[in-house]
Amino acid sequence: SIEKAKSYLGAIRGASQITISNYVGEAFISKTADSYIDSFEPKTGNLYCKVPLTSAQDVDAAISCAKDAFKTWSKTARAVRSRYLQRIASLIEENRELFAVWESIDQGKTLARARIEVDRAISNFSYFSTFILHEETKARMIDGVALTYEHRSPAGVFALISPWNMPLYLLTWKIAPCIAFGCTAVAKPSEVTSMSAFLLCEVLRQAELPSGVVNIVFGNGAVTGSALVKSQKIAGVSFTGGTATGIQIRKDTATDVYKHLSLELGGKNPTLVFDDVDLENAIATAAMAAFENQGEICLCGSRIYVQNTIYEQFVEKFTEYVSGNYQVGKTVGAIVSHPHFQKIVSYLELAKNENATFNLGSIPDKEPKAGYWMDPVILTNLSTDSAVVREEIFGPVVTIAPFTSEEQAIELANDNPNGLASVLLTKDGARMRRVGEQIEAGLVWVNCWLVRELGTPFGGMKNSGTGREGGEFSRDFFTVVRTLHIPS
Ligand code: NAD
């Protein structure tokens, strides 16, 4: 409960009224804003927290603070930076349960899911804390005449903007590499889920991270995010969120050629099931890919295509499996917000109007009485042109359709403007490569889902974004490189 979680909060400033405050320099700003955004608890629908709507002027002050800090932080030895990251990782670990409880309250996700994401946030800091220690400078000799080498330096202050579906995990996936590579940050979490970022501010303070290295400002996209992105003082934007917002950020930075842009956007990811699979395993993987975190993961497989020879059997057994294993309040959390709940319901209404078959689930009331709960929905008999099949719904809704050949499976998988992730379920080793290498998606999971190694490139094709994050890809994003030529 919130009361119990509140008692956990202890020393967090301002938390007794749960009014969030910005963290700029190394201080919580007591009066952050003239206006606040209401934040509701997804599991009850109750208002429980006030999020400041940070003005453009206050955003500018935070950026100036980060710019000042950059002068020293960019020259701080990597071993020292590494120790700060380790300290932050340890402090999150010490407060793992506190973070998980609040993430679950704030986002609606199950506590079990929240714990996984807190652990991943810890990994983000520990991974980059060691990555920077093993970096080598690339040098070459040109015919004994000249030595050339690549000199990297931190690029500057970055705007780090994250969405509401995995709040702490995605925000730290940006903060950790940014400061590891010597840059400073002004971060803005989603106004819908600000609590874990607020807790992180306290961790940064306790870690004694030098003033201004990470500043966290709260607010919406139209006022706060937009001011951050448009600032001429930043070196770039690392953004994770919806495709429409990504396009807006591209437009808002179009004339600032120097800005580094990483856009991790939406997905409508296919899961391909071939008839040689072990059906039980395939069903468990496809279900997890569809319904983990209520389907509110950009990587969720929300379009399942099954080879016609096993199609009917798959639909029946998949429905049985999901109804037995994905139960609201136990393994399925609440939808993040009322507007998002209504958006999902609209897609279900559209599916009904298009005469889709609801194999599981039904259309909930658009005005839920207590919390934004929704049973998993499994839809069949929709046209490939349907918006339900083409557009990202970002909820516990999956569509299933048959295919007859490998070529058709690839065609269906690629028949979408997005290209973030995909799942390929088959035992045929040659097909894994043949099909896997033709799917237009930044991530192809073969007989698995959500397996991650933080050094591998992460990002999407087509409308799912530009740029890659992870290991050396994050380094390339947060640094600038100059090549020196020194003759003998
Ligand atoms: P959103 O685009 O509405 O908001 C994301 C963030 O951008 C928020 O912090 C928001 O305040 C801010 N923002 C909004 N307008 C802005 C503007 N004009 N300028 C600057 N900032 C602005 O997305 P959301 O609804 O919070 O998140 C859901 C979306 O995120 C889904 O589409 C999902 O697929 C995507 N997502 C992608 C990934 C990925 O890695 N590719 C990961 C998670 C979520």
UniProtKB/TrEMBL annotation:
Active-site residues from the entry: 264
Q: Which UniProt keywords apply?
A: NAD, Oxidoreductase
Q: Specify the Aldehyde dehydrogenase domain's residue ranges.
A: 31-483
Q: What is the protein's given name? A: Aldehyde dehydrogenase 12
MF annotations from Gene Ontology: oxidoreductase activity, acting on the aldehyde or oxo group of donors, NAD or NADP as acceptor
Family statement drawn from the similarity comment of this UniProt entry: Belongs to the aldehyde dehydrogenase family.
State one Pfam family annotation.
Aldedh
* Cited Gene3D superfamilies: Aldehyde Dehydrogenase, Chain A, domain 1, Aldehyde Dehydrogenase, Chain A, domain 2
Entry keyword annotation includes NAD:
yes
For this protein, the parts annotated as crossing the membrane are: none
Q: Which SUPFAM superfamilies match?
A: ALDH-like (SSF53720)
